[in-house]
Amino acid sequence: MSRGLSLWLWFVAGALGCSGGTARESPARHVVFISLDTTRADHFGFYGNTAIRTPHLDRLAAESIVLDDFMTVAPTTLSSHASLFTGKYPHSHGAPRNGFVLDQANVTLAELLRDNGFAAAGFVGAFPLSARFGIDQGFERWDEEFERFKGRDGVLQNERSAAAVTDAVLRHLDATAPKPGRFLFVHYFDPHVPYEPPAPYDTLYDARGRAGLDDWKTQVQACAALPVGQRRTAQAERMAAQYAGEIGYLDEQVGRLLDGLRERGILDDALLVVTSDHGETFWEDHECFDHGWGVHQTTVRALGLIRLPGAAKSGTRVAGVVANIDLLPTVLEYLGIAAPAGIDGEPLRLASDSLGPSGAARFSQATKPWEEVETDSRWRNMHKARCIRAGRHKLIQVPYAGFEELFDLVDDPGETRNLLDRPGAEELAGPLRQMLESWAASAHPLPTHFVREDQDEVLERLRSLGYVGGEARSEPAGHP
After folding, report:
1. Which CATH number goes with the domain that contains 143?
2. Which residue segment(s) compose the domain that 244 sits in?
3. 213 in a domain, yes or no?
4. Residue 411: enclosing H or E segment and its boundaries?
5. Residue 2 pLDDT exceeds 60
6. Exposed (0-12), middle (13-18) or buried (19+): which is 235, by Cβ within 10 Å?
7. Is the dihedral of CA 111, 330, 92, 465 positive or negative?
8. Please, which pLDDT band fits residue 147 given cuts at 50, 70 and 90?
9. How far apart are the C-alpha atoms of 387 and 360, rounded to whole Å?
10. Distances from the Cα of 308 to the Cαs of 36, 182, 228, in angstroms?
11. How many domains does the chain have?
């Protein structure tokens, strides 16, 4: 008996108040993924931030398994989501950065769930996840009705507000009769630059709101002109306050979505995953109010929550390193669906008493600069910044600049002390370097191409969202 038929029989039996029978009860009738774009994990109460108010996601975290050390394998939107959907590193699935196409030879989570009885629908908040890039593979519905935003280079429809995304999801739920199960993917883009939260969130952490603030491109350039240790200026703090406002607004809209799922009887029957595709660097490292250039914790550390049906195992915290490539095999293992061959992730055993990750090393690789260093025929990102996480230690390499950094993230979570400057560090760095370089050399990407159809339009839209080299670049002169 197929799992899809089994799921349908379970649903019918439940609706009739029956028990027993031959159908195996499904551990979850629905699967819901919520993706928060450009969202730093350190801005939430359940990760220890007491200054920023995130009541809805804090409440959800109390009902969930919290991944305390969750990371993305690519600090940019398309590549990260492609890894989320395929369980593969970018140098396996083949989409190096925004504007490229995910090859259809990849097997996606939506395809696997669709083939097992789930109705797959996606709702996205911004152009980098447009269907033209192949990221909609396996979805029966892919909703990308972007709004026009005044003040956000609004010539083109590039994104839509969190409220509009939530509205679209709830309208869909009310207008469609579900199959035995739903797979919902919901993507929110609001914390991405420029930070312009709506009232009252624009004044929540700075009573002046945006009054007197430079436009974000000017602010980025001003930040980048300063040495790294001097970038936390009063203006930069005000930018960060607007970002915090975006997080508060996002929390409100996610809360509205969660309430809608509860009211419609979906939430408690669902396996719910909330994650962020990457974070955002303010002033801490070489990039300013940006992401994609480096692989420091400001952009590589992400948010990770897993709520089981009925809030089972609520309050559980997972301390080991988990990456977004691990979520596909985790969901499939929980549902009893075989994972496709060739994936890079490994499952968390959600149904077992032990939820710890395998302890295997995890890797991440930057996606910028565009074009300038994409000179290796094996893989476009071969010479860009990359890192390995193995336990408490993290080694970063930037091949195009020829430098390395080594950090102990337990003693130094802010990555302020490069251990390679200390005697004896080579004994620790050597094995990590070997693993990182072996991983980089294992690149075997599926074919891809930049979307050439309407190329000028694609570049214009990516530019207006802060992407594409040469536009609002935060890399200062003399950056390695």
Report:
1. 3.40.720.10
2. 28-360+447-464
3. yes
4. none
5. no
6. middle
7. positive
8. confident
9. 14
10. 19, 15, 42
11. 1
